[in-house]
What does this fold into?
Amino acid sequence: MKIRYALFDQATDMGGGNYWTWADKELSHKLLTRFYNEFAVKHLVPEPNKLGDELWGGVIHLAAESMEKCGWLILYREFDGGHDQQNRPNRFVILTAWIRTNEVYENLEPIFHNETFQYISANSKKLPIPSPALLSEETGETVMRLAFEKFVPFINPSWDSHLQIENKPSGMDTTESDAFTQELNERFKSERQDKKRIQDELNAKLQQADKLMSAMEQEWKNKEEKLKITINNQNDEIKNKNVEIKSLKKRANSLWELLLGGAFIGVMLFVVLVGALLLTGDLKLNAGGIRHLLKFLGL
It folds into this structure.
């Protein structure tokens, strides 16, 4: 991967308020100003003259300004610059190492201790700091160290992000800065609002569906109750009809028994009458007698 360098010196005005003493030609003043104003200036050491060998800096991702280009990964470190031209204390200088995100081989920590950073550390109090022999260099592919594992997932083409490194003589204990966390919150704010809106719409539809289901359930309960009442009424009507039929059958049987009893009595009376007539001689067992008997009976 290719590393490009630029140096910011608070005490060296290059004209027009430009404090970038030297920079690789691919790093525009606009890009350098974006880095300093949006991130570095928010993370300056309070007393640069007390830095010593402590590493104070960070890792920044600057998103690409267009889809045709890729963004930048920037490693920066602030150094003790001694005193300025007026012999005022707490001058500082910042060395930046710029790498295109599509060229990052995921091994970043050693860059903070490479020859260019060591050169600035040895010459940080010079006014101005002379440019190194090369403002860019090529490095080989290596293996990533644990120091930046939590930063790598946030290297996203859509937003800037910042991982601070401070007050650690050995280097690599890191802390997410406000720019690192708040920027993510802002980037996802609209997404969270959209999710909330969709969730609210879904909840409203679910409530409407619940109301509709409740109304349908109540309607079915009402229909079921009416049907039960109708069935009960029909069952009662059937029971009443069965009772009525049983009563009619019983009355018919009684009538039939009465008719049979009357017929039997009639036959018996007839037999008695015939016997009496025969005994009295009023009836003779011949054709004339039978006609006389039938005439008597009205037949």
The two ends are 142 Å apart (CA to CA).
